Amino acid sequence: MTREDHLIRQLKKGRQECLDELIALSYPAVLRYCLWHMPDRESAQDAAQETFLKLVRFIGQYEHRGHFRAYLYRIAANTCADMLRRIPPETALSEEISARLCYSEKELQAAEDRQQLAHALACLDNGSREMLLLRYGQELTFREIAVVTGLPIRTVQTRLRRTLDRLRRTLAAEEKGGTTPHEHKTSHKE
């Protein structure tokens, strides 16, 4: 039994002091998740805080079956989506990614690599980016991703494999200085 499982069971028994520890355990990962979805750190912090407010509000309805992280990320995903609907579209996610880049000479190559990765990720659809973030950024299992996205596990595995293949092709094309597979496909349509 994980520490989260123990804390949730204690919460269900009415021990509200366990809530602080549960939030302390989960907050850094939820904030990191929100940072990827929100345009700036302040709105990501607001989204993380709102996620935990919703958790507190609905913890009594939560049926613990070992999928707490998936439940929490589903709340965070919905919270970020709700908050993004209220943000003007001209505030782009790329602004936050660019702000995170370090421009010292020593780290210039790393910044360039991050820019290439950010561009390649931008070529993916939202669902594919979300699955990559959940799997590799948040280290969720396929089962947890299935719970968060509402998709069957096999579908999650297949989509992740295809997304990784697409990402590899896009990065390889950019490295060669050619067009990305996405740009190549659209150029034939014109």
What topology does this entry show?
Elements (H helix, E strand, L loop, with lengths): L2 H10 L5 H20 L3 H18 L9 H18 L7 H8 L7 H15 L3 H12 L4 H8 L3 H24 L4 H9 L1
Helix pairs in contact: 1-2, 2-3, 2-4, 3-4, 4-8, 6-9, 7-9, 8-9
Verbal overview:
By secondary structure, the protein is an all-alpha fold. Helices cover 75% and strands 0% of the residues. The protein has ten helices and no strands. The termini are far apart. Mean pLDDT is 78; it is low at 100-104 and 180-190.
List keywords for this structure.
single chain, 190 residues, mainly alpha, Rna Polymerase Sigma Factor, Chain: A, Arc Repressor Mutant, subunit A, disordered C terminus
How would you spell out the order of helices and strands? HHHHHHHHHH
**Domain tally:** 2
Query: Roughly how much helix do the residues carry, as a percent range?
Result: over 70%
Alpha-beta classification: mainly alpha
Biggest sheet features:
none
Instruction: Determine and state the CATH class of the largest domain.
Output: Mainly Alpha
Count of distinct strands: 0
Q: Kindly report the CATH topology of the largest domain.
A: Rna Polymerase Sigma Factor, Chain: A
CATH architecture of the largest domain: Orthogonal Bundle
Give the percentage of residues in beta strands.
under 5%
Number of helices: 10
What is the straight-line distance between the termini?
57 Å
**Low-pLDDT residue spans:** 100-104, 180-190
Mean pLDDT over the full residue set: 78
Rounded to the nearest angstrom, the radius of gyration is: 19 Å
CATH homologous superfamily grouping of the largest domain: RNA polymerase sigma factor, region 2, helix turn helix motif
Shape, per Cα inertia axes: globular
